[in-house]
Amino acid sequence: MTKKKKNDFLLIGVALILLGGLLIFSIATRVKGEIAYVKVSNQAVMQISLKDGSYVANNPSNVIVLTEKPEIDGFDLTTSSEVIPLEFGKTIVVYQNLFYVRGALGVVEIQYKENKIRVSKEKSPYNICSRQGYSDVAPIVCLPNFVTIEFSNDTDVIIG
Amino acid sequence: MEMSDNMKKIMGMILGLALLSGAFFKVNVYASDEPLVRSMTDYMYTSITVTLYNATEEDLNEIEKIYQEYTIISNNFNFKDDDFDGVNDYLSNPFYGQTSIYDVNQKAFDEPVVVSQKLFDLLLEAKALYLETNGYFDVSIGRAVDLIKQGITSFGYDDMPKADFDQLMNEIDALGRVTFGEVILNETNLTVRFTNENVKLDLGALAKGYATQKAVDYLEEQGITTYMINAGSSNIAVGKHPENRDWRLGLRHPVNPMLGLYAVVSNTDKAIVTSGNFEQFFTYDEIRYHHIISPKDYLPKQYYHAVTLIGDDSGHLDGLSTAIFNMPFDEAKAVVENLGIEAIFFMYDGKINTMLEDTEVELRVEEETESRPNDVESIAYILGGVVIVGGIIIVLLSINEKKKGANHDKEKEE
Which helix (H) or strand (E) holds A101? Predict the structure, then answer.
């Protein structure tokens, strides 16, 4: 009986060590800071870590990584050697800390810099979303382009 | 026996730990069936996204047709002369050529203008709102709306110089006063007639929500229950959520969008409409002159930064939110109560008043979003450390106990 009790204590102790370890491990390995969710027509196409600018593309996005900075030409991107057409809600083009998605009015350029995100280039009548500048809290809404950047994924849609 | 007991315990603990760990990792749940999504830029002077579940492309086409038709009939621009930055492509709209509000405005003071049943019904809704809100909603003040909007176009988001401001106020003062009472709707002939030459109809505060309600009516007829329609971020209609939960709608901070969301509301099967002073305005003497003007004195009111209404009819709410924006809070409260709708007021002084029934709201306005994540992180580290130390102490104690016990046994044997 006493032996069993002692074993119980041992188990509880081991369990607590495991729990504490897990707690610290999960916090330490978690992507630090917040995440920017890039949405096209309310569907998340990619997530950008505000810690280091790393990204994850969601299905069914297809990702094109460039080694040369592209120029925006309407709905396409051009490099010195090729023209890259972007598919709405599908294609993501990445060059270093710049991300390109197709908006309804043209290509939208998203820039990561020092734990923040901004829309650096876009075509729209009032340029509301590119004038907003860098953000890590406030959603960036490019309404005419159907592109939004949100910093939490707990809402379905943004009003206002 | 002892082994299997321990095994059970270990299994139980592993299960418990697995459950606990779930709380620390964000789990993304995706809907099993992919939605049909259509984004449209050519209608209602805004961007509309329709998201349907368990529906067909044909349903999206039908909804697009609804927006196409209401875009044409509610139009009050001469789109042959005006340039809309190529955003709105009227000429390719299949309803192009139907009698529009522009046509009515051109001729209705001289003679009765015959309109389609749909445009007539839309004007009847405008009249009903005019009567219901005691004149706080009035689509006949198009000339005043034009003047304010010109100011916003020229000085958007900036200070207007005094000379321009004085000139604008003079122009507004010089406008002849009109009311919707001077718009005669003849139900038998489907005609519209103005009895005051200064009437100019502007359906901008109603048409988008009204068309959205027509789209919702279509979905209901088709038995499509799971959907979201987002008309310009200001008119949202939601059915059921594909994950069988409430839709969560984030309300942007109207004073400074950099502050993020000021509230999140949750509900299903509702229309949610917001009127705010933050998308279109100029400032003068530290006051926001926004695009919603009171029919009483042709000036924008400073009672609220944003009014969000939640109810069943998107069109009705669209008109009401504009009317309520022009009302002092006491009158607004009475209207909301009488109509049995729900409301969130972001007052001009920054206070938030809610009148809610089955809609849930999380207010976020006082959160210090900057420091929060770090605090949570350090607390988790400290907690983890304390738990580990506690675990080690218990293990050491129990090992110590075992040794003692063993010694005790030995002593006994001896």
Answer: strand A98-102
